[in-house]
From TrEMBL:
Belongs to the glycosyltransferase 2 family. GO terms for molecular function: glycosyltransferase activity. Pathway: Cell wall biogenesis; cell wall polysaccharide biosynthesis. The keyword RNA-binding does not apply. It comes from Arthrobacter echini. Residues 38-148 form the Galactofuranosyltransferase GlfT2 N-terminal domain. This is Glycosyltransferase family 2 protein. Keywords: Glycosyltransferase, Transferase. Residues 430-623 form the Galactofuranosyltransferase-2 C-terminal domain. InterPro entries: GlfT2_C (IPR045699), GlfT2_N (IPR040492), Nucleotide-diphossugar_trans (IPR029044).
Length: 637
């Protein structure tokens, strides 16, 4: 509800003062929530003498994004009401302060209330929104909309939606049905391409016939072997470009909850951008619906790592601090890329820069945004366009089978795009990650990361060649390590028993200074070469929760039961001095070789990029994989 309607009577966006949290500054905890006021998706019933604000994520107008990326310079707010009410229009500045712009009292009129508002002073940020106040009687808000003028010769673009799915036919059928049930979206929706890479087929799912009927000729299901997210989305891109009918293709995860209005907004915003622009949507937490993962994504070039953009905060809860009471969110955020949970890409861009990187999973969306930027194309994460997705906090994919793809793909992207000599800090960080995994007895993750480096050294030809086979090899390698064998029942393990008590009876704690951290690292490394106690091979010395499984805690143990990050079980981590020494030496040697060959490898990957992201290369991969073009869902795939 906080994403749609704000029941807090606080009208002015408070300034954030040092020493206070946003929630303290907003004083937003006392607002009541009235879902009973909501009539349907477009209507709101407001009792007498009540006031609500539509200054919310989904209902405010992100004027600064329109000023920055389009030539539109006026927006019209049209509000249709029944009853005596006052409509008050506000705008915010990039500093997060609110200004009253205009207001109108409807009285007994039934005509729509219209405001024509300039988009002229939102250079660094700012939104428009309106509040609604009922007078002596109840008021019915029947509809409200923001609209912009169409220039001469305007023609709305056509949209294809590309969904990649793997053994989630129920999610997929549900989302297809939602798309077909959106009357506002259907006029611009040309095709929905489902790339099914699983063994549980979407075409066999109960309810798929209803979804197919609602979408009609628009639905196409393509079946192929599992080539990961990049292979699935590349197929959707290829099908769209080769069809030649759509202006845009939107890449959409299969396991999301959608706001179909947001899909329409992304397409409409793209219609008005000055130049072809990638338009992405935000991601909200599927389990905490008012919590946003991030407001913008960026790449830190010296470390070549991705994360939240500058001036943003992760995990923002709109239920605690809504849009009007969150000053930093009124500043426009410029991004390097948008995650492919929801991302619209003009087909013109695809024709110029190619399809997805053939990396199976991880870094494909990041790399595409960087590649587009290098070709002069902008990515916009558009407020008001979003999906709900399982949060990353529910898993740790840096220590499971995905560790291989995290490592290899980050190196590939760094080799191609890093502006710093030999990748800046990235190689050093890579060595540090290996060291932390070794100290944590996570030998399977280190082995996968080293295999990734070996593949990077082999050159770019391996990317397409192994995209359909590498996952099996990765899983087989990981399964040979104790730390990767998860049991759902703790009774499968021997009882926890520690022969030597902790130092002074205290649990390990993070180092308080850099010098203390270095000293602990040296001591922990020295401990790794000591013989493992016999007792620790027979019984785990401790049971460590997933959130506590840090290197400085595990490095003091010879063995431990460690809970998996999703809480479904635990694995027995056992210190192996010989294995740790072997992996450490391999890591040092591989990093040395990569460092010495940096310029040569960077040139190889840069030169090969246009080819291995080309339609021709991907078409060959799909054909070699034995796939065929899909057919309409109604006649089978």
């Amino acid at each position: 509800m906080p994403l749609y309607v704000d029941f807090n009577n606080l009208q002015r966006v408070p300034e954030h003062k040092p020493g206070t949290t946003e929630v303290d500054a907003a004083a937003s905890g006392g607002a009541d929530v009235h879902p009973d006021y909501v009539v349907d998706r477009r209507s709101l019933s407001l009792p007498a003498h009540e006031r609500v604000s539509l200054g919310t994520y989904f209902n405010a107008f992100p004027a600064s994004y329109w000023q920055a990326h389009t030539s539109v310079r006026t927006v019209r707010l049209t509000v249709e009401l029944e009853g005596d009410a006052t409509v008050v229009v506000y705008r915010s500045t990039s500093r997060g302060t609110a200004n009253r712009v205009s207001s109108t009292r409807t009285g007994s009129r039934s005509a729509p209330v219209v405001f024509d508002l300039p988009i002229a002073s939102f250079g660094d940020g700012g939104w428009y929104w309106f509040d609604l106040a009922a007078h002596s009687g109840a008021v019915l808000l029947t509809s409200a909309e923001w609209s912009v003028p169409e220039p001469d010769g305007f023609q709305a673009g056509k949209l294809s939606i590309a969904v990649t799915t793997f053994n989630r036919p129920d999610y997929c059928a549900r989302n297809l049905k939602a798309l077909g049930a959106s009357p506002d979206l259907l006029p611009v929706l040309h095709r929905v391409i489902v790339t099914d890479q699983g063994t549980q087929k979407v075409r066999e799912e109960a309810g798929i016939d209803d979804a197919a009927e609602s979408l009609g000729h628009r639905l196409e299901i393509v079946e192929q072997a599992n080539l990961g997210g990049s292979g699935g989305f590349a197929r959707g891109m290829l099908e769209t470009v080769e069809d030649g009918q759509s202006t845009y293709v939107m890449l959409l995860d299969d396991d999301v909850e959608m706001e179909t209005e947001g899909i329409l907004r992304a397409a409409q915003f793209a219609d008005f951008t000055r130049n072809p622009t990638i338009v992405g949507g935000h991601m909200f937490n599927l389990f905490e619906r008012a919590v946003m993962h991030n407001f913008g994504e960026a790449v830190q070039p010296y470390r070549f790592s991705y994360g939240g953009a500058e001036n943003t905060r992760e995990g923002h809860d709109f239920g605690s601090s809504n849009l009007r009471t969150t000053p930093w969110m009124h500043r426009r955020v410029d991004v390097d890329y948008n995650g492919w949970w929801m991302c619209l890409i003009p087909t013109e861009i695809i024709r110029q820069i190619g399809l997805a990187l053939p990396v199976f999973i991880k870094w494909d969306d990041v790399e595409y945004g960087i590649r587009a930027k290098a070709h002069g194309f902008t990515t916009v994460s558009l407020p008001g366009a979003a999906v709900w997705h399982m949060p990353w906090t529910e898993k740790d994919d840096t220590i499971d089978w995905q560790a291989y793809y995290h490592q290899r793909n980050r190196w590939v992207a760094t080799l191609i795009y890093s502006p710093y000599k030999r990748g800046g800090r990235m190689p050093k960080e890579s060595l540090g990650v290996d060291a932390r995994h070794l100290l944590s007895m996570q030998y399977s993750a280190v082995e996968l990361r080293l295999q990734a480096l070996e593949d990077v050294l082999s050159g770019p030809e391996h990317l397409h060649r192994t995209i359909g086979t590498k996952l099996g090899e990765v899983r087989a390698t990981r399964a040979s390590f104790d730390d990767a064998r998860v049991s759902k029942d703790l009774a499968d393990f021997p009882a926890v028993k520690r022969s030597k008590p902790p130092h002074k009876g205290k649990s390990p704690a993070p180092a308080r200074s850099r010098s203390a951290a270095v000293a602990r690292l040296i001591a922990s490394a020295a401990y790794q070469v000591r013989p493992v106690s016999v007792a620790a091979t027979q019984n785990p010395e401790a049971h460590v929760a997933a959130v506590d499984a840090r290197w400085w805690r595990l490095a003091q143990l010879d063995s431990a039961l460690v809970t998996s990050s999703d809480g479904t079980g635990a694995s027995w981590h056992k210190r192996d001095a010989q294995k740790a020494r072997e992996l450490a030496l391999r890591s040092a040697d591989l990093h040395r070789r990569l460092y010495l060959r940096w310029d040569e490898l960077a040139e190889q990957y840069r030169a090969a990029l246009p080819d291995f992201t080309s339609q021709h290369a991907w078409r060959q991969t799909f054909e070699l994989d034995g796939t065929a073009h899909g057919t309409d869902a109604g006649t089978g795939a």
